[in-house]
Predict the structure.
Amino acid sequence: MTTILLHIRHLVNTRNKSTVLRGKELAQLPVINNAYLVIEDGIISEFGSMADLPASYLTSGNVIDVKEGTVLPAWCDSHSHIVFAGSREAEFVDKIRGLSYQEIAARGGGILNSANRLNATSEAELFRQSWERLEEVRRLGTGAIEIKSGYGLTVEGELKMLRVIKKMKEKSSLSIKSSFLGAHTYPLAYRDNHRGYINLIKNEMLPLIAAQKLADYIDVFCEEGFFSTEEAEEICRAGMELGLQPKIHANQMHHSGGTQLGVKLGALSVDHLETMDEEAIQALAHSNTIGTLLPTAAFFLRMPFQPARALIDSGCAIALASDYNPGSSPSGNMNLVVSMACIQMKMLPEEAINAATINGAYAMGLGTDLGSITIGKKANLIITRPIPSIAYLPYAFGSSLIRGTILGEDRMIN
Ligand code: NIG
Ligand code: FE
């Protein structure tokens, strides 16, 4: 089927060639003003200026007048935990009253709280709740998402989560990648037996996950009080032997060494990065690993924001993601993530949009298929209401500017 979009005020992130962007390249956001775009069977097949539109296109195929809306690649959210059971607003209130994230975790709250609920929830119900979140982020303009396990912490619980993700992959128009995060925290039964849990991950969880092809990546929460760099390395290497590339939770609360570990292992991304020093920044800058920044997690935990300027100015490749999860970022709103990156981290609108589209796509292994307006890529698109400029998107941080989305052949336009 052919679909033609006409009267696009700004067609954003148009690229003949697609590569991950680092350093200064992030500020280059190619735009065609007053443009058209042709989609052939869900794939971008042609685009250009309305002035060059062949007259025959007005009568061929399925024509959509976007009425001066802006069209950009749908958000590529390369870090989320949207498969979870229930919510944790009681801990949110505890935090308002003064408890820290670590204090809540130490008394059995936090990830362990979510794990208890998840293990008590049926697979069908877990799918229902998670599907609702997927539909929610789709309406907010997300067209691709990486989803992690890590709230099971038992063989059955982790497999249940990964099966739910697999089912979502099969059923959804969003492009989805899954990461095995069995090493999210030590379950209570293994609090004093780290070796036992690491062996469970290596000898029982990973072989089953690999045999059933339930994960694309391996993740570890490398952090004081969670998994040390040595433990994280052992677990990542076990995953790598089974073909799973690492994406690591690194440098969130402490100088964990997680960034350097990710670089050493050739991780696809190291994520969070609230707490960075020059050594970690330089290690990342001189690697192919992408640094994924999660500003809504820093915001929600009242932590210093990630040092985006230092990372970009040092030449790093940066992506932005939501971290949607019940404990540190109960929001999957990538529009807010992009705004917050501009407002609090001083990223330019161009840098933030690149980081949330093309670099986000690369940070989940989808860079050749998604994240830019490039011939041959899947037509995952956001259509906005008319806006005066690209900078208006992050500027109007509380407004609902999205008129609709196209994900391949699946359209949702008001
Ligand atoms: O990415 N930091 C570790 N994991 C999640 C939070 C998990 C939770 O609190 O439930 C994160 O922020
Ligand atoms: Fe996370």
Summary: Residues 110-111, 114, 221, 249, 252, 297, 323, 325-328 surround N-(iminomethyl)-L-glutamic acid (ligand 1) (CB under 6 Å). The first strand starts at residue 2 and ends at 12. The chain is about 35% helix and 20% strand. Residues 194-211 form the longest helix (18 residues).
